[in-house]
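Practice problem: predict the structure.
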Amino acid sequence: MKLKECQLTLPVNVRLLKTKPESEKPEGLLQTIFIEDFFSAALKRQMKVEIVLPPWYKETPQFSFPVLILNDGQLLHKVKVKEALLKLYNENVIPPMIIAGIHAHNRLHEYGVAGVPDYKSRGNKAGKYSRFMVNEFLPLLKKNFRVLEGPAHTAIAGFSLGGLSAFDLSWNYPHFFGTTGVFSGSFWWRSKSYDGGYDEANDRIIHKLVRGTDSVSNQRFWFQCGTEDELSDRNNNGVIDSIEDTLDLIDELQAIGYEKEQTSSTWKC
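Answer:
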């Protein structure tokens, strides 16, 4: 499919690489667009993004759609995002949406907590990644795709370090992101090493960030962990670290006023 057939006006530093062919079937209309040569001034590098448009996007120019931004967009195929979308669309479980997967580059430095690197100086570019997201990428989506604006229509998600990054971004920018999904988030991110005086109550960076907040927003959070992601148990209490760190973060959210919905593991104000 040629660019003009997509009815998109991309900036001069962004080009359309390829799209999946369409067919008469709904799955054929789940069009994928790859964007490269999008230079980020904040990160000072070229970005690559995979955009998955909802079925019949081209045929419904009168409609705009909510957007879900995913960290680690290079792994969309491995986590079977498109297969899940098709299943949910066919079952009428979710409304049509635009998926934007941002390919990671140096995730140990670009993902993390903005302004607070860990004890190994990892995450030292997280602030720049945040600026890229809100000052460059969201405007790119707004200019070139029919996205609904505002936190009620904008979600961000990720897993592992990408999940930590997604939570940090939404926490710092609640006026942009209303829903956040975190899957096995790296909430162990800490300011001290285990043998350098680590104190679980004070040295987990994201927990301390939440604890220091004195107000809540209308944001919604989905947390999910598995028992096979890792087996580490640093304090030998029988609870896998990734699960314990997530449960402790939920406790921190509850302590400042968030409430758990009775019908799911989503947290809301």
